Predict the 3D structure of the following.
Amino acid sequence: MDHTELTPEMLLNAYANGVFPMAESADDPTIFWVDPEQRGIVPLDQFRLSHSLARTIRRARVTVTLNHAFEAVVTGCAARDETWINATIFDLYAKVHALGYAQSIEVWDGTELVGGAYGITLGTAFFGESMFSRKTDASKIALAYLVTHLKRTGFTLLDTQFITPHLASLGAIEIPRAQYHNLLDGALEREAEFREFVTPPSVQDVLQLRTHAS
């Protein structure tokens, strides 16, 4: 599909119907739409905070922010040998971010961006798109803070699209398409606001994920 045909409204409507875009590669200007038979999610009450990750979070001297460097996060996610983020997708998500529906979480070591993740929000659903690390476990730290924030602000669904070993180690599971669409329908019936931290989660707030996980 030619990116000139796409609008932010079309993208948001696709997400509301459980569909998301991908490209074959960074150099391929076209996109295709995906609605997997098995969908990856992270149940927010089952996020797996391992002993080693908890230790890393305690010792890390990092700062975590929301929506301070959206395009830099997308650039970081695309900076790999194989990526489905092409110019079409990059430009479209930048427009959706300007409208308030595309979000990023950033992990900083001083002034250096060392990790992060980005996604789309609708209702009480967060559609995770991608994450990256330039420092060991930085993307895991980003996801732990993201889950803490989503739980604080009333979100009910964290969609990861697919499962990777990295995500599975953090509690991600696969569910059938029909079950996912039922969860999505429920999430879209409610409202939550993904905004800048009113009070940033403390290290202890994030570590409580270990206590609350079943």
